[in-house]
Design goal:
The chain is an all-alpha fold. Helices cover about 75% and strands about 0% of the residues. It has one domain. Helix 1 packs across helix 6 and helix 4 packs antiparallel against helix 6.
């Protein structure tokens, strides 16, 4: 087994877990969720359908890291360092064109 490939896969899974926590955090507060939906133009049903897509999850972390207050609140709530959240965003963004947003938008 190739350890570097295995490590990369584990990093991606860990990054997806961070992103799912971020999405859950956004959905837990009506004001945060409404802002996310307004900025993305997605409906709640579209968010549910896209929740497993790595590109969408990267976009969730992009949204979270672009607002320092949101980032710090999520970080404190989840017990995840802001640097780890940013690292997860970068890992999920690999393989996706950073100039493009989630294709579902």
């Amino acid at each position: 087994m190739n350890h570097s490939r295995s490590k990369t896969r584990q990093d991606a899974l860990d990054a997806e877990t961070v992103a799912i926590h971020a999405l859950t955090f956004l959905a837990a507060d009506l004001e945060r969720l409404e802002r996310f939906l307004a900025l993305t133009g997605l409906s709640p049903d579209e968010v549910r359908a896209a929740a497993g897509d790595p590109g969408f999850l990267a976009a969730v972390l992009e949204h979270t890291t672009q607002d320092e207050t949101l980032l710090m609140t999520f970080s404190a709530n989840a017990g995840i360092a802001p640097e780890a959240i940013e690292a997860a965003r970068i890992r999920l963004g690999r393989g996706h064109d950073p100039a493009r947003h989630y294709d579902g938008w």
